[in-house]
Amino acid sequence: MVVGSLKVMFLLHDNRSLKGKRKVVRSMVDKVKSRFNVAIAEVGSNDMWQKIELGVCAVGNDVRFIDSSLSHVRDYLDSLYLAQMVDSEMEIFNV
Length: 95
Fold this sequence. Notes:
Layout: E1 2-11, H1 18-35, E2 39-44, E3 51-60, H2 63-79, E4 84-94
Antiparallel strand pairs: 1-3, 1-4, 2-3
């Protein structure tokens, strides 16, 4: 079994409230869930209204497939232009 995790950090420059941040996060999460077969959630910086941390997880039996899936998710999130991507970390484990 292969487990892949992706952590992506974004900045919201013009955001002024947690309500605005939640709207952007909900949009990102819903779009990724409807397009890819992965689990995604906000995993950090919950009280910081200009920073978003999303965690994405995928499970499969091929390292190349998991790597490709998570790379596509990262590229898709960046192409949404809802926030500025500042960092991403990907890890793949053979269990």
